[in-house]
Description:
The chain is α/β, with parallel strands linked by helices.
Amino acid sequence: MAQSACVASRLTWFEGMERFVAIDFETATDSRDSACALGWTVFEEGEPRETSGTLIDPEIPAGAWSAFNTVIHGIEPADVRGAPTFAEIWPHLATLAANSPLVAHYASFDLSVLRAGLARYELEPAPLRYACSALLSRAAWPMMVSVSLMVVSRNLGLLMAERSPEANARASGETAARAAAALRAPHLDGALVAAGLHWATVASDLSWTPCGLPAGYVRAAAYARRGFRRFEGIEARDPSG
Length: 241
């Protein structure tokens, strides 16, 4: 009986939460334009409705893959043979995220991978907005020893039987929804306000506003179509989402 009441309360709390799509990228190297896998989960009213993913061919020589990255995600060059390229998976992701915000854990990484892929293949996205579930976690549970996805998931009782882009995306979305509830916000808009954050944005020219910086701050996109690698060090150190 108590469990049923808890479930009913949870469902009532999330009623009205905006639809959003949680994503997780993996890369073949330390270059952001080397996406080799993507997982996503569509959330409606705070609940996961569809989880899926795909391997991605980064179109680089097998010898260019980073052994360190492979140890982390377990994906090898042979695994992506015949897989779609970023340019080929983008239309599906764009459709999924149409009129819906994105969520990612340490979103500064995942959205930099997204922007790098768009820049590499000269694709122009519709303007999008996104939130970082790690930053929301830090605001919702300030005493938590770490806001790594594994630590947060363990503390929230989220089951992660495997480490995969699909599992990471789902855990990221569930973390964002739980953080909103902890911040007493029935939707992500309110959660961001309560956390002192705002929606981050990516414009069609690939300029972007991180969610951890003042709303008026906009990153220049002069490098967007050329020389993205030259700026990767700056992006990698950006903790702002």
